[in-house]
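Hi Y.,

Following your request, here is the sequence exactly as I used it, all 213 residues.
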Amino acid sequence: MSFIVDYQWYLFIIVETLSWVMLIGFGVCRYIFHREKLSQVLILLFILLIIIEAVLALMVYQATGIIGDFQIIIIIFVLYACTFGITDFKKLDRWMRTKIGDWRGIDLLTDKDKQIIQQQNDPKYIAKKYRMTSTIHTIVFIICQIAFWLYGTGSFAAMIPYLTDLSWVESENVALTPYPNEALYYGSLLWGVIFAIDFIWSWSYTIFPSKPK
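Below is the corresponding structure, written out as tokens. Let me know if you'd prefer a different format.
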């Protein structure tokens, strides 16, 4: 266990590099050599490596008892891979098949792919999708902040003064905040800014819908 703690960042870099190798290999096998079975194996290995990253973060936490930069970074990677990463990957896959199909003069898209592409050009569908992702982001953000505060204060009752008096937000002394350490405090502040931007951007599609393409 001490080996994992001492070399946690090296192990993370190795696993993350291997995951990108698997992802690139997937693209090469699927789009260039048309090896469907091999590409499926590579994407499964990619998912396995994401799971290994999560296990690695858990093992380091069990050994140190501290949620630090290492755990936060891995949580961000894993959350993205399990949420927006899936959608982005599918979008990239359809885009690649569209371009390669045009280049080869054949249709590589299924009827379902064409239906999805058509939906993505519909302003109502776009607004609905962003409302859904914004709602999910809001729920995840609130749950994580409650968990961080509970971890830092020890009880729900101890959290109440921080809700009624937000002067601690401008403090650089982590001891005056409900967060247990600097990593979670500054990480949460950064996440809060990203959350606010994402919230405004997502709901702008509902308030100011674009014209149908």
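The two ends are 56 Å apart (CA to CA).

Thanks again,
Q.
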